[in-house]
Amino acid sequence: MRTLIYSAFVSIDGVVDSPGGGSATETHRSGGWTFQDLEFLPEAYEIKGTEMQEAGAMLFGRRSYEAFAPIWPDMEDFAVVKEIPKYIVSTTITEGALVDSWGPQTVLTSLDEVKALKEGEGGPILVAGSAELARNLSDAGLIDRYHLLVFPVVLGAGKRMWSETDKDKQMLKLLDSQTYANGITKLVYDVVR
Fold it and tell me: How many domains would you assign to the chain?
């Protein structure tokens, strides 16, 4: 069984969208909140590089794929991702709409297909961005681990990390934590089953 990891930049109030800037579908005024007001400390972001190097695959929702796919294939910072398999969970995107220069890519059309992917062989599956997908994966009990960088900011508006679905509580076990001088806190949790 593969480990499905959700990695997110998250505000204190649980917002995960627009960390690097706004988009047409994310209309709150705080887009770019991860790069504003805080001193950049490379050590606070170390987990991002480590998780990409260790990933056996990446999983995206359609909107995050459409945001990353035109940019990431040519970025040196994301070169490690180029050749690992990428899966896009969508009922609207087609194989013909995928970018040519980004290694192996497959469209999955349901959470059942994600579950089957998890049950296969290989390294961890990393979900980056993809707030709506992450909420659906969490509600379906498919996320095994959270890699969170919690920023000392309250945004008020934006897409939340968890849905408001009435479901059984989900306990988490803290594996790692660290707080950095700029106020960012790294939290790594396993989901207790």
Answer: 1
Q: Dihedrals φ, ψ of 175, to 5°?
A: -100, -35
Q: Give CA separation, 62 vs 1, 104, 121, 133, in Å.
A: 25, 16, 24, 9
- Does residue 110 surpass a pLDDT of 90? yes
In DSSP terms, which residues pair with 173 in a beta bridge? 190
Report pLDDT digits (tens) over 58-73: 999 998 899 888 888 8
C-beta of residue 52 within 8 angstroms of C-beta of residue 124: no
Residue 22 is encoded by which pair of tokens? 């706004």
Give the model's confidence band at 76: pLDDT under 50 very low, under 70 low, under 90 confident, else very high: confident
| CATH code assigned at 50 | 3.40.430.10
Q: CA-to-CA distance for 135 and 115, rounded, in angstroms?
A: 15
pLDDT for the residue 89: 97
Bin 62: left if φ > 0, else alpha if -120 < ψ < 50, else beta. Answer: alpha
Query: Residue 111 corresponds to which tokens in the numbers above?
Result: 């959470």
Give the domain range for residue 135: 4-191
How far, in whole angstroms, is CA 168 from its chain's centroid?
A: 23
Q: What distance in Å separates the CA atoms of residue 72 and residue 139, rounded to the nearest whole number?
A: 29
Can you tell me which residue has the tokens 């990390």? 161
